Amino acid sequence: MEYSFPDVIRRRIEHFWGYGSLNATVWFVGMEEGLGPTTDTQELETRFRAADGKTTIDMRRDMSHLVGHMKWFRSGAPIQPTWKHPIALYLYLKNHRIPTSEEIREHQGLILGDSILKESSTIELMPLPSQKAHESTWLYASYPVLGLRTRKEYLRTYKPARILGLKQLIAEHTPKLIIFFSVGYLPEWAQVIGKTPEEVTHQMYFVRNEKTAFCIIPQGASFGMSYKRLYNFASRVKDQVVLAA
After folding, report:
1. Distances, alpha carbon 161 to alpha carbons 150, 156, 173, 235, in Å
2. CA dist., res. 32 & res. 134, Å (int)
3. What is the superkingdom listed in this entry's lineage (predicted)?
4. Which fold has domain 5-240?
């Protein structure tokens, strides 16, 4: 059955969480998926219809028709700025050593968001991708969907339910590790976790429960983020993260 695009948007808000398997070992959790600066309405609709009615999809197999998306998964692709630190932190905690650039690139290209391998998934708190987290790049005001007239209204309308939904998904699937990559959403991550995380190093936080370890790190290069800072943090929490079966 072919749904109208506004219906597809509504269904995405209700059902879609990201890429890979919810049974993956590690979830990389961000605030929302980014878009390239040239994304048009047709590309957006193609992206949304690929995920329509689904909770997650495969990062590569289900998105192979989107050229801008697939550029990150070609041989020799550059390391994506948003994913590099979450991947590097996970590889450090998995292998107990600093990963090489090629290991980070290989995970991005071949493993990240793979629904069959079930090693790492990318999950987004908010379901509608955007070029920037700003009103000026809000793409959805013209669609007849409740709460989409402005970005502010969208967050007010849907964020509380998404926080609860993410918390329930974690309780159901119990990933061994979750890496949140946005310090600006620290209060929301604390709500999802249900516990207050401890600041281990500057702007980097950790807490765990019986089944899952939670790390919170800055996104990209924000807050002066660097690999050096990341691995200092990782060295302090590694003994509290158990990734083996």
Report:
1. 18, 10, 18, 35
2. 12
3. Bacteria
4. Uracil-DNA Glycosylase, subunit E (3.40.470)
Which amino acid type is present at position 121? S
Helices (H) and strands (E) in the chain, counts: 8, 8
pLDDT at 38 over 80: no
Q: What are the extents of the domains in the chain?
A: 5-240
In angstroms, the CA 222 to CA 215 distance is 16
The tally of CA atoms less than 13 A away on the side-chain side of residue 124 is 24
User: What 3-state class would DSSP assign to 96?
Assistant: coil
Q: How far apart are CA 175 and CA 104, in angstroms?
A: 21
State which H helix or E strand residue 208 sits in.
strand 204-208
Closest CA to 233 of 86, 83, 81, 103: 86
pLDDT tens, residue by residue, 178-237: 999 999 999 999 999 999 999 999 999 999 999 999 999 999 877 889 999 999 999 999
